[in-house]
Specification:
about 60% helix, about 5% strand, two-stranded antiparallel ribbon, mainly alpha, 4 strands
Length: about 210
Amino acid sequence: FWEAPVLDRHDWLYNWRRESLLAGIPVMTEGWSKLRAQQPDAMPDELWAVIDETYVQNTKDFLELFAQRPATFVHGDYELDNMIFTDDDIAVLDWQTTMRSFPGFDVGWFLACSADDASIAREADLIEAYRAALEAAGGPRWSTEELLDDCAIGMLYHVSGAGYTNTQDMSGYGGHAPRMEARFARMLSGVVDASVRWDVAARLRRLL
């Protein structure tokens, strides 16, 4: 589906110009401010600064930048908690956030949120496997650096969005609350750790 016209013909498929995304900007900015106040050591100063100075302060402009990037069909929440494995197959769940979007949005989220010591040790191999599959399926012949640049753009959304999920009162979920809180904390640490591994702050300064 690389740059496929069909991606623009389905109302059910999200894109970065949807009104619902614009309506969520105040929620994101409030969550970001709360996260900075409650967890000032959650990420390096330079990552705080570059995301705040770019995406958080100019979100509408960056949503349009996202919309203009080379795009394909993405899942929108592609991580291990949305997958069921059998011995020889996999089922991917939770498709309500499927989008026309740039591939680094999914790739970066998956590598960050699903990371453990074993996957990080093989991360270069996973990135190379994706690059090869993308090209074989009709996408571009990207270098590793080009793919990581695309992932870095996605981190603007993922890191800033973690502010909302990590500053909400989960007590209303009863017995489910501790698991939800742990999951959201893991997501935050995952995207921050990946941003450090990929030197996202410096990449964003160069790209933006």
